[in-house]
Amino acid sequence: MNNYKELKVWQKSVDLAVRIYEITKDFPREELYGLTSQIRRSAVSIPSNIAEGAGRNTKKDFNNFLGISNGSSCELETQLIISQRVNFMEQAILESIQHDINEIQKMNWSLKRSLNLTKD
Q1: What pLDDT does 120 receive?
Q2: Domain enclosing residue 58, as ranges
Q3: Tell me, what's the pLDDT at 51?
Q4: pTM as predicted
Q5: Do residues 69 and 50 lie in contact, with contact meaning Cβ atoms separated by under 8 Å?
Q6: What is the pLDDT of residue 116?
Q7: Is the confidence at residue 79, as pLDDT, over 90?
Q8: Alpha carbon of 65 to those of 60, 86, 111, 112: distances in Å?
Q9: What is the 3-state composition of the chain as percent helix, strand, coil, each rounded to the nearest 5?
Q10: Are 97 and 80 in contact (CB under 8 A)?
């Protein structure tokens, strides 16, 4: 699977990462090396792991990296919830991003199932 750029889940997760960078640029300066950095790394990790998995040699490897990508999406959501609770972002923005994350997670799991390796 070398055409990861054609995967809708990869495209959508890249868009999410760009959006996260835009949102976090307004976070407090003192959080640059704290929560801001963690959030950005989590967001970038989602499409990065999809791409890395697609570039591997086996479906099993790809499946594993999709799982890592999904874990990163859960990590991102947790960090965003914390950010909202400490008033770094509005509830409406959090909800909008959570919707995008949920959609990416569903697409990710569908892709995992299509590899015929996932056990539910």
Answers
A1: 47
A2: 4-114
A3: 97
A4: 0.93
A5: yes
A6: 79
A7: yes
A8: 9, 32, 11, 10
A9: 80, 0, 20
A10: yes
